[in-house]
Design a protein that fits this description.
This protein is α+β, with helices and mostly antiparallel strands. Helices cover 51% and strands 15% of the residues. The chain is built from ten helices and eight strands.
Length: 285
């Protein structure tokens, strides 16, 4: 091809670690497309770490081919699209570049200067104000849960520990979970939806499971492989107002999003007003 060349011998050489020494004084061109060059150090910055030499060579080769294809197709397109479309593309590129600058500037400002701590009192205040927005779409419950192999030891003792709900039994359950559990939940303050729970235990195969949950009765269920123990502590059906603990993370996100928007609006206003006061911008007649 008249307008392009690759330096194939560079590929293996480029993939070797010694070639990437930053001490090199001159840049090595590995490909050219028209009047643009691709340099070895540009690919070096993209090469994944700890690749074996054969994979490194393949990565470099593919990258060079991709770079050439992009340059050739871009040149062909620019030479053949109507002028009005080229102007539209330039406008979109400029707009995208401006938006990208603003986005990264705003992100850095938020990281450096915005208060991201949401106190519990603020969460509770938001919850009370907008409580009607937090209606449950699924049943939720707090529980102790254990899934273990069907041949695990002391299963009768485990059943007694779950059903009696004594503090000393909680420690027994905790120790048992560390030794034999395939899945477990020991946090009785954590809310879980019925839909999530059904991913861990085949509740639909348990007779009257919902009635047992509402009555806070122990559920023990076995199949050919596993034994499941479920002791409900609290239960709230869907269409009721969610407890604040269940929606705490959601409320925190909502508060931070609102805080971020107010922060950015104030920042933009201050920057624009400052530019106007310094006569850096003006509307011309």
């Amino acid at each position: 091809m008249k307008h392009l060349f690759i330096v194939p011998a560079c590929i293996i050489f480029l993939a070797s670690c010694s070639f990437f020494q930053r001490q090199q004084e001159s840049r090595k061109a590995v490909a050219r497309a028209y009047d643009e060059y691709l340099y070895a150090d540009e690919i070096a910055n993209l090469l994944p770490e700890n690749l074996p030499p054969s994979d490194s060579a393949a990565f470099v080769s593919q990258y060079i081919e991709k770079w050439i294809a992009e340059k050739v197709l871009t040149r062909k397109a620019r030479l053949n699209i109507p002028e009005n479309l080229e102007n539209e593309i330039e406008n979109r590129v400029n707009e995208y570049r401006s938006n990208l600058y603003i986005h990264y500037y705003e992100t850095e400002l938020i990281r450096q200067k915005m208060d991201t701590v949401v106190e519990n009192a603020e969460i509770v205040e938001y919850y009370e104000k907008f409580k009607d927005n937090f209606i449950l779409h699924d049943d939720i419950l707090q529980l102790l849960f254990l899934k273990t192999a069907v041949n695990s030891p002391e299963l009768k003792n485990v059943e007694n520990w779950f059903s009696e709900k004594k503090p000393e039994h909680y420690e027994n359950i905790k120790e048992y979970c560390y030794k034999y559990a395939l899945k477990c939940n020991l946090d009785t303050t954590h809310w879980i939806t019925i839909s999530e729970l059904k991913k861990e235990i085949p509740l639909d195969s348990v007779p009257d499971y919902l009635q047992k949950i509402t009555r806070k009765q122990l559920i023990r269920y076995s199949d050919s492989l596993f034994v499941y123990f479920l002791q409900p502590y609290n239960y709230i059906p869907k269409n009721q107002t969610a407890p604040v603990d269940f929606v705490k993370n959601k409320i925190t996100t909502l508060i931070l999003n609102r805080r971020k928007q107010l922060f950015l609006d104030k920042m933009k206003t201050n920057i624009i007003e400052n530019a106007k006061n310094k006569n850096d911008v003006e509307i011309l007649n």
